[in-house]
């Protein structure tokens, strides 16, 4: 099994939000729903949307990194023109969100959100700050491993996949029920980026590669 189950009691939020009844299909078919949904246009993206370090007057605090990879379909073909969004905590492990009140400093020069379109080869690229781990009260002494959330859109809001990218060698993997909710070890490792020296820019930023393969990269359905 590649994807995590809807209900995974060790991840307490799933107990509240996992569906308890069978799926009821709408009278309109999926194609009809998609035709009436909002769509995306290239003009809506800003020049700095994929560089999270240049969206404010000064540079954010933390380790600058480059995250790049390819969006591929289940046969390995590139998916061009797809909208890829990311959001993350800052270097201290805090989100720029009112509901995040844990005692770590906010960074006035880091909002932690970006987006871009894949190119003809299905490639995306973000410049950002490596996020910190943070507590999340799921269980005693619970900490999330450092991660970046990814959202991949098709041509409408109904065509969306959400997943997370982790960093290699994180000691919190074994203690994180979200990561461990994926039954297959090989599938879990598809969520772990790989350090890449070719992506790394000398004296400026470390580089990480993270490919997203539709149907194979575990996604968040719960």
UniProtKB/TrEMBL annotation:
Residues 67-95 form the Intradiol ring-cleavage dioxygenases domain. One of its GO terms (biological process) is 3,4-dihydroxybenzoate catabolic process. Its EC number is 1.13.11.3. InterPro entries: Intradiol_dOase_C, Intradiol_dOase_core, Intradiol_RC_Dioxygenase, PCDO_beta_N, Protocat_dOase_b. Gene3D superfamilies: Aromatic compound dioxygenase. Keywords: Dioxygenase, Oxidoreductase. It comes from the Bacteria. PROSITE patterns: INTRADIOL_DIOXYGENAS. The keyword Translocase does not apply. Pfam families: Dioxygenase_C, PCDO_beta_N. GO terms for molecular function: ferric iron binding; protocatechuate 3,4-dioxygenase activity. CDD domains: 3_4-PCD_beta (cd03464). It is an enzyme of class 1 (oxidoreductase). The keyword Thylakoid does not apply. Belongs to the intradiol ring-cleavage dioxygenase family. PANTHER family: DIOXYGENASE, PUTATIVE (AFU_ORTHOLOGUE AFUA_2G02910)-RELATED (PTHR33711), INTRADIOL RING-CLEAVAGE DIOXYGENASES DOMAIN-CONTAINING PROTEIN (PTHR33711:SF10). This is Protocatechuate 3,4-dioxygenase beta subunit.
């Amino acid at each position: 099994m590649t994807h995590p189950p809807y209900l995974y009691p060790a991840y307490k939020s799933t107990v509240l939000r996992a569906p308890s009844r069978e799926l009821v299909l709408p009278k309109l078919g999926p194609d009809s729903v998609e035709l009436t949904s909002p769509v995306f246009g290239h003009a809506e993206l800003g020049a700095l949307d994929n560089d999270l370090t240049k969206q404010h007057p000064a540079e954010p605090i933390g380790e600058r990194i480059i995250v790049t990879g390819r969006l591929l379909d289940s046969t390995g073909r590139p998916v061009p023109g797809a909208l890829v969004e990311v959001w993350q905590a800052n270097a201290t492990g805090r989100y720029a969100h009112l509901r995040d009140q844990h005692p770590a400093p906010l960074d006035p020069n880091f909002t932690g959100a970006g987006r871009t379109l894949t190119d003809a080869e299905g490639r995306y690229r973000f410049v950002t700050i490596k996020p910190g781990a943070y507590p999340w009260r799921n269980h005693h002494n619970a900490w999330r491993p450092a991660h970046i959330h990814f959202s991949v859109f098709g041509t409408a809001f109904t065509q969306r996949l959400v997943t997370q990218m982790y960093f290699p060698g994180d000691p919190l993997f074994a203690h994180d029920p979200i990561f461990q909710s994926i039954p297959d070890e090989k599938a879990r490792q598809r969520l772990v980026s790989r350090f890449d020296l070719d992506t790394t820019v000398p004296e400026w930023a470390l580089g990480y590669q993270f490919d997203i393969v539709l149907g194979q990269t575990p996604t968040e359905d719960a």
